[in-house]
Amino acid sequence: MARKKLFCEISPTTYKISLYKEIVKRHIKNFLGKEKFAKVKQEEKLPVVITSHSNDMIKRGPGINALHQQNKADNIRLACSKMNGVVVMPGESFSFWHYVGKTNKKNGFAEGRVIINGKLVAGVGGGLCNLANTLNLLVMHSPLTVTEIHHHSDALAPDPNGVRVPYSAGTSVNYNFVDYRFRNDTDQPVQVCTWCEGDSLHAELRTTNEYPWTYRLVEENHHFHKEDNGKFYRISKIYRETLDRATGKLIKRELNWNNHSEVMFDYSLIPIEQIK
């Protein structure tokens, strides 16, 4: 028996109505909530780098729309400029949409790739998940606390040059109700630095003094599997480990994501040796 369609799946119009409803609900929740968002933004960088990451914003390959990829890069550049230099003080929170704002053409955003009802389609502001992914990757290597995250498929495209980076994809954002948020539960400020050079995205978390811990992500049993519905999925378990900076001793190990992501790219590009 076929699944009954949700209201948002009936037509583009019902999708827009559902979207608007969720946006209004988040505005009300933000207004009534007690969460304190970081307000300080400064050009001068804090002295200590907690962690950093860079990646190529442009995906290339069969079936990938080159214009949408370029627009994605432009969207990321614009979003980076809005949050670059934000200082999250102890007890404060960072919200992706609080700084980026509404992603429409009026605000300078272009049409890129977005996921709607499980399908990759064109949409204004598309590609910002790349920036959210990068922020989450940084936070996973810091003592900051993730307070809101929404996972989508982290198999949107083949791993670049065959190199797998856990959490380099898979974090969904959609204005404004599907947000990415973290809180600074430490006793010192943390600065978010995001900028672009050419087609590369660069990001850092900075602070005033070194923390006594370091962090690493460990992925186990990574593989692709074809399931009964005929679709391939990326499957793995991703653990986050906390280590003592001075001794390197493992302090804590926790399962962070039991990954089961639908492959959204051409199945012929899945490495044969990774299929089980």
Describe the protein in words.
It is a single chain. This protein has two domains: 1-32, no CATH class; 35-210, no CATH class. It has four helices and 13 strands. The protein has helices at 12-32, 66-83, 96-100, 129-139, and strands at 40-41, 48-56, 86-88, 93-95, 111-116, 119-124, 145-148, 181-183, 190-197, 200-207, 213-226, 232-244, 250-262. The strands form four sheets. A five-stranded antiparallel beta sheet has the order 1-3-9-10-2. Strands 4-8-7 form a three-stranded antiparallel beta sheet. A three-stranded antiparallel beta sheet has the order 11-12-13, with no helix packed on it. Strand 11 (213-226) and strand 12 form a beta hairpin.
State the strand order across the main sheet: 1-3-9-10-2
Structural class designation: alpha+beta
Strand and helix order = HEEHEEHEEHEEEEEEE
Mean pLDDT: 93
The proportion of residues in beta strands is 25-35%
How many domains make up the 3D coordinates?
Answer: 2
In short:
The protein has 276 residues and is of the alpha+beta class. The protein has four helices and 13 strands.
Summarize the topology.
Elements: H1 12-32, E1 40-41, E2 48-56, H2 66-83, E3 86-88, E4 93-95, H3 96-100, E5 111-116, E6 119-124, H4 129-139, E7 145-148, E8 181-183, E9 190-197, E10 200-207, E11 213-226, E12 232-244, E13 250-262
Antiparallel strand pairs: 1-3, 2-10, 3-9, 4-8, 5-6, 7-8, 9-10, 11-12, 12-13
